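Late entry, 4-O-methyl-alpha-D-glucopyranuronic acid complex.
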Amino acid sequence: MATVSVHPAWLPTDVWRPIGSRRVRVDVSGTVREEVRAACANHGGALITSGHADLIFALDSADGDGYAITREPHATTVTSATHAGLLHGLFATVRLGEAAFTPAPPLRSRPAFARRMLDHWDNVDVHPVMGQVERGYAGGSLFWRAGEFRHDQLPRIRDYARLLASIGINAVALNNVNVHTTEAHLLTDRLDEIVLLSEIFRGYGIRVHLAVTFAAPMLLGGLDTADPLDPAVRAWWEVTLAQVYERIPDFGGVLVKADSEGRPGPFAYGRTHADGANMLAAALAPHGGVVHWRAFVYNHRQDWRDRGTDRARAAYDHFTPLDGAFADTVILQVKHGPMDFQPREPVSPVLAAMPGTRLALELQVTQEYTGQQKHVCYLAPMWAEVLGFRPRGAEGATIAGTVAEAVAVANTGDDPFWTGHPLAQANLYAFGRLAWDPTLTPAAILDEWLGLTFDAGDGLRAAFHAIMGESWRTYERYTAPLGVGFMVRPGHHYGPDVDGYEYTPWGTYHFADRDGVGVDRTVASGTGFAGCYPYPWSEVFESVTDTPDELLLFLHHVPYTHRLRSGRTVIQHIYDTHFAGVAEVERMRDLWRGLKPAGLLTPELYARVGELLDEQVRCAGEWRDQVNSYFLRKSGIADNRRRPIH
Ligand code: GCV
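Prediction complete; structure with ligand written out below:
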């Protein structure tokens, strides 16, 4: 159990009362029974083996990890074909609360994606630039500290596994995709640590995966090549992975970032990414493991003078020619947008262009570009838009209906609130729930989270909705405008720096000059990126008048006086949204100040959120003033309301 100083997140003791105060029969041994036993011990109910039960958990012969909850006047029964499914049924019963015991039509639920995975970017050693957790904003790693495995954290890691299971997560990659030397050893001589973690996660139906370096045969095996077609390399992976399976029979598989941002990969040997991924798949498949191969491949040493190279095209150009070439047990993991987790990007065209490949949609729960868990930014509305996007138009499939899996980069650490900003817990919660059921609405998920975490009554709910519900769009308003992205401070990526990346090799430019701003990605006169989409989006994005306003500068270079679909000019939109965005953050802070800590809204949580909202107001003001001043100075066009711009 967690120590008292660790926040219970969405599983405070009281959410177990409806179950724990009843007579419950659990027809299987394992975690469900132990959870029920603990709940009954806390709330006065009884775990029974005979006699009348109010609640019964039993295996049945249905298939998969779904569950059914049958609510009849005399008893509620939860069934599933698997232990994992029964566990999901248990947590669904927790979510229902007392309603689980009111007669109602049977409730059946199956996950939309068979694998719902969280990727940790945790380092074992403290990296000199990226620290203990790359892009981590929630304290240190739960698993490692300064090179050492955190044996003292095993009880907390168990609580963590439980939180993840409660939202349907069933796979976790434990270490950073940038696999440095120390971390490479997790696969071999530090495997004991992974064995320990797998034992904890297994209890909650979660399989562990490891990020590995493509150069492992050289780094760990002493070979002079990592060529995927070299027999000695193939043999090294086969033997090494077989040894992993001897210790961890349900090991999930490996995650690889290759030929990306300096990571080694098959290109060094003149091989394709399919050659690389399939070699690993061949070594894993006999044991039931899979390869997650990242599509985040682009030239990070681009010449900024070269207008012909477009980072947004890179994954499409690298991977679509390989469609159909990957083994069945390779999952190509594709970031939701073509660039890099900006607050607004179009959906990656790769997701619509590889019907012969198993794809995973990769989301970023850690808020690298969305306020770094200092800003309230509830991301479920963005993810719901991505999942619901129909690349082939209204009659075509959604992204949720196209991809095989949902993966997200974790936002958790050893912070007492798990996520730094206590309200960022809602993002982790929402990722799990959307990965189970992408049709859930962001507002309904927020309600569910509020009900569990704060036992919130109507007044508190309304306040939280007003603070969080639109917070992603608010963040969008006071940061980089109209989808142009990347006006962040280079390196750490927090706060504004309009030209920070403009003359760098990273491929992230806005091309603002005295006349206009934006990236021409059309086929007619630009990089051709718009043509990477199927019809109708290829035509929509090609057209400067049809492109949705929020993506205009991602796709087009336009004069400041260009009129948006909204009727406003680009320059006036920039000024208006930046003033409005900051005003919204001030309103959020004032709403928070109007609340009083009580019950589960503890003084500690109340104070933490209050301090962070002050920082959000400060930072949003900085964004507004830098962005507005920059564009006033570039364009020479005044704000039509003459508000203060510097
Ligand atoms: C793990 C971005 C981040 C990097 C991250 C990379 C990736 O570039 O800034 O920290 O590396 O994405 O997704 O691999």
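The first strand starts at residue 23 and ends at 26. Will revisit in the morning.
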